[in-house]
Amino acid sequence: METSDSFPAQSAIPVGYGPEGIAVDGQARRGYVACARANSVAVFDLDSREVVTQVPVGREPIGLVHDRDGGRVFSTDARAVVTDLESAPQQPTTGLVRLSGIRPSPISARP
Known about the structure:
Blueprint lengths: L18 E7 L4 E6 L4 E6 L5 E6 L4 E7 L4 E6 L3 E4 L8 E6 L13
Antiparallel strand pairs: 1-2, 2-3, 3-4, 5-6, 6-7, 7-8
């Protein structure tokens, strides 16, 4: 694992295949990693650095954003579909929004 002097690695977290995007919810102490090849988002505990669940989402998730105001996490996939992970962690709302274009990896939340 590569590290830098400015941001030294503390440990590796085995999140899944094809990690792409990442989002962090500091208040809930959770991290989220889009695992493109696993078609899921890994949710991990920021303190223990252990994966607590894998949430199935659309095909090839690539972008993630945490909405601080609403406390929700959204992912985008390579098929231009947005998924709301927080609405029901075991059965996320997939296809919430269909975007035009291809591979909409940048995603952001505005208040």
